């Protein structure tokens, strides 16, 4: 049951952390809205019955309008660590409306200094490195920056791309020249065994990934690289400040408890 005139929360989800937060809020008596970018993200929340699910991307102005319309008290940003533009829009909208902002951070990986890991700051830097070496490349950095890989000589022969199994991702990938056995469309995260099989099948000497953290299957990628002898080229995530998913959930529980007590106190006055 939702409490009238209670606390209102907007969660930007689309990640494992976002789903965990949404599932917690589904059990609490606070008015909750959960925003996801895609229909796939929406399908992962089908068990949530007591929250309002919003589907589609929103710019800064649209977010700010929604915050005002629904009188949101708190925004929890649990978007992907590499969804930089989305986070920027959310922060600006919160600043312009005076709504409290809370960033949920993904757990760091523990691969720094590993012999098989090559750390880079961006996909562009990864491409520059790959231009100077030989061997097949297995790419799992998403479809948004795939165009950068076309700067590599013989990229159509050297590169194998794994993207989300959505029409948008597949069409974009094919348009760039990645097709046939060089295009793999699947939904992750993936097990070590699947990663190993793909690296072996593509004879990959390099495995390019973003620092997706534990929930994004990073450790399974690292283990697969070690098992197959491929070098793991890791694009580091942007530096951010925020709270772990556990700390965010504890904070939300404390808000829910306080809100319920305050509202019951008003009823008894």
Annotation keywords:
269 residues; alpha/beta; 12 strands; 40% helix; elongated
User: What's the total helix number?
Assistant: 10
Low-pLDDT windows of residues: none
Distance separating the two termini? 22 Å
Secondary-structure-based class equals alpha/beta
General description of the model:
The protein has 269 residues and is of the alpha/beta class. The protein has ten helices and twelve strands. It has helices spanning 16-25, 39-43, 60-70, 84-97, 123-131, 155-158, 167-175, 192-202, 218-228, 245-268; strands at 8-12, 31-36, 52-55, 74-77, 100-105, 117-120, 136-140, 159-163, 183-185, 204-210, 231-235, 243-244. The strands form two sheets. The chain has a six-stranded parallel β-sheet with strand order 3-2-1-4-5-12. The protein has a six-stranded parallel β-sheet with strand order 6-11-10-7-8-9, with helices on both faces. Strand 1 (8-12), helix 1 (16-25) and strand 2 form a beta-alpha-beta unit. The longest helix is centred in the last third of the chain and has 24 residues, at 245-268.
């Amino acid at each position: 049951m939702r409490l009238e005139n209670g606390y209102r929360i907007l969660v930007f989800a689309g990640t494992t952390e976002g789903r965990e937060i949404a599932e917690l809020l589904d059990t609490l008596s606070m008015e909750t809205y959960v925003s996801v970018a895609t229909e796939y993200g929406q399908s992962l929340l089908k068990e949530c019955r007591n929250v309002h699910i919003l589907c589609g991307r929103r710019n800064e102005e649209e977010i700010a309008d929604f915050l005002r319309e629904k009188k949101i008290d708190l925004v929890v940003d649990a978007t992907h660590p590499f969804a930089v533009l989305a986070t920027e829009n959310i922060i600006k909208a919160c600043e312009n409306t005076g709504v409290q902002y809370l960033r949920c951070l993904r757990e760091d990986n523990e691969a720094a200094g590993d012999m098989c890991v090559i750390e880079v700051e961006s996909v562009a830097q990864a491409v520059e490195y790959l231009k100077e070496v030989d061997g097949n490349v297995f790419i799992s950095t998403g479809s948004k920056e795939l165009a950068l890989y076309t700067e590599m000589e013989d990229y159509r022969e050297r590169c194998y791309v794994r993207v989300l199994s959505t029409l948008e991702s597949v069409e974009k990938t094919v348009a760039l020249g990645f097709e046939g056995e060089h295009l793999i469309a699947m939904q992750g995260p993936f097990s070590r065994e699947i990663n190993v099989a793909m690296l072996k099948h593509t004879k990959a000497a390099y495995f390019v990934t973003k620092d997706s953290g534990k929930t994004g299957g990073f450790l399974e990628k690292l283990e697969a690289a070690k098992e197959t002898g491929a070098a793991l080229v890791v694009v580091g995530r942007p530096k951010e400040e925020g709270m772990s998913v556990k700390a965010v959930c504890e904070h939300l529980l404390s808000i829910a408890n306080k809100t319920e007590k305050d509202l019951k106190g008003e009823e008894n006055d």
